[in-house]
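the two lines:
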Amino acid sequence: MQLDVVIASLINLLTSPGLLGLVVLAVPIGMFFGAVPGLGGKLGIAIMIPFVFGMDPLAGAVFLVSMHAVVHTGGSIPSILLGIPGTGPDAATVVDGYPMAQKGEAGRALGASLGASGVGGVIGAIVLALLLPVLRPVVLAFGPAEFFLLAILGITFIAALSGDNLIKGLIVGCFGLMLAFVGLDPMTGIARFTFGQLFLWDGVDVITAVLALYAIPEMIALGVRGGSVSAISKARANYGIRSVVEGLTDVFRHWRLTVRTSLIGALIGLVPGLGGDAASWICYGHAVQSSRTPERFGKGAVEGVIAPETANNSKEGGAMLPTLFFGIPGSSGMVLLLGAFVMLGIQPGPQLILNHLDLVWTLVWALVLANLIAVLMFLGIARWLGLLAFIRGGLLVPLVFLLAITGSYLGSGSWHNLILLLLGVLGYGLKRFDWPRPPFVIGLILGEIAEVSLHKALAIWGPAFLLRPQALILLAMVGASLLFYLLRRRATRRRS
Amino acid sequence: MNWTKRTAAIVCFAAIGVAQPIEPALAGPGAEFFDGKKITYIVATKPGGGYDTYARLIAKYLEKHLPGARVIVKNRPGAGHIVGANQLFAAKPDGLTIGTFNTGLVYAQLLEREGIRFDLRKMSWIGKAAADPRVLVVGKDSGFATFDDLRRAERPILLASSGIASAAHNETILLAHALGLDVKVIPGHGGNEGEMAIMRKEIAGTFGSYSSLRPFVENGFGVVIFHVGGGPALAASVPAVRDLVHDDEGRAIAALIESQTALGRLTAAPPGVPAERLAALRAAYESALEDPDLRRDAARLRIPIVPSYGEDVAAKVDAALNQPPAIVALLAAVMNVEIATISVRTALVTVAAKGKKITFRSRDQIIEAKVSGSRTRVTIAGQDDDRANLKEGMVCVIEYMPGGEATEIDCDG
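prediction for all of em together
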């Protein structure tokens, strides 16, 4: 690695008021696109492209990368305060973030999400930097066989996410898997469970499902109960800057988890095809499974906020690798970023690392810087955002319903999709009778990946795909995950 | 509605960002109707894709050439462009709704797929903005470098496609059939997953639009084997499919796919738009696409412009939809089974290896097919029989997969 280029790029970025100004400008824009449900980073890039049209390539790229890097930092705000995920990958943050707000710990949850996003983003950038020399073999090590087993590994987390009743968790998880099969069968082209409705051809929209399962039941519950999101009165709750800082320190108190989920997130980002939703839910599942006290999750455990938020931001660093160096984007957001790069006159591809190493490093530093600036900016407003948790339910409920509906509509662009919000009735039932909801989302997200990858792996290698070396490692991990769960269950039984 | 308004405001603001001062052009007859009107331009995909980029660019210049009109792009994604096309077809034919969608819907209409509520023959065609040549690209390390390598392949050649309902998937199977290649198409490679799979060497290659595969080739990851409708951008050494096929069926398939490539980025209005308004829309579309400013913007966006207008496009769409029943049957077959089988009544020319291998004449070619002990159903004189009893000179109805196995052999005895 040429250290002089690395340092020169950092100095160039820090001493150029123009570039620095663009990063500072890009951060609030990115956070805004994350925080408004249904907008998201992809739309952010699409809308910002006209602005960078004609800019100097370096400046334009720095602006877009900085903006896209912090979308999920903003996305956690409505997840925590209102139970509405700002973007798809922020949905996992709802599971524990919203209960924290209910316990009067909105400030702490925001602080934790903020710190986790910042640390995750920085670790993601470091992974990007470290992998530059060995990129190709690492990225190419993951094919459909590995995707399938990664999805299965994620599905085994359903056990840990089921709480004390495995059967309930499995039923909910299987229902999620079932809904994952709605849509055009990718292999045969046959419409499955679409009931003649064209909007179902593309499957069940994940954002809408999460809104239906979380935001709607929580708002019904709030309406029934009365009061505000926070069950604790403002006088007794912690919403000051001190609680935000407490959340920030939580991230470092759980530093092992923070580092692990950042790395998992970066790895999943690196491999085109798995997607951000899978990254945050797999990390959430991992946090529950590796916790000594898994029963706290879903009721406001701070680790449940840290895990998905680190993954969300760290995956951005990873996802840029195939985009920049193969010219092959890993997500639809990256497709747009790639298009913008080309338009700016940057031709992504293997030559980039040879001819424009300075540009690559400037982008790495922009990623780091944007994440840090986002933390500072957010810190300034977190305290006031936390007050939202104390607004009277009568004012909040209609607003949240409106946001849920526009979020679902903007996400899919089809009003028919709003019919799916009827799943909210199911969500309310699950909440009311204390059934776990995360297994549903895991099933919905990973079911599709598992199905398509299994088909592909079988078509290419036949059942022998399970004997590929990476597949064997992943199979061992699946086994270990199940064994770990069983042993822990036995230990808890013996204790009680 | 605060949020949506805010979004709208941002979008408009962004649009102003690119808009340069625009002078109104000369308006033709019928154009005065559009003065002060709002035209909705339906795009059948989510924002940000190729169709969206073309539509937003064209919308900007339509406004310039239809003085006083505002053109609003509206994204109506879903069901592989069918939702958008349905909505366009059902829109009021007052000339104030136009739209763009994938040319591959021609296949969907030919096959009468479910969910279709449009008839492409009846649409009021305005024009098309691009040509979309297709290429077969194989990986640099796939072991194939020329068409002959593919023809000599000993095992099925694995090619990636996005999904079984996609135009590229159908075209891959049709081409394999026309060229007599032993191909297995693996669907489920959405976005750029096919390119990743080629780099991982799981898959040999993929057949698709040259504009999207071009960076992959230019980055040195892939080689172009042949093209359909390709222009001067391709090396002269790359053969066209129409020169590689030998029989009428092959030529018909090559022509069908070629007609698709000519019609990239179509724009249409619903059926029954008053003639004068349609003429005004066509004229404005033509002036927009010929505008040097549009060409300059397109060059900056790196999107090619190969336009064609009005009646010409309508005639080409009609031609693409006028397929002989044999081709439609072939299309239907490839939609339902992985590889289409062909049925022929002919005499067995040779029978080798105790009936495991047979050759026969079909469509002026000598075909070699394997006979499986378990999968191939052999009947002689109406009785189930063993492949070992097949003899040279027997007249049989043979159903076979091109380049593969016979599925059924029914001999007179």
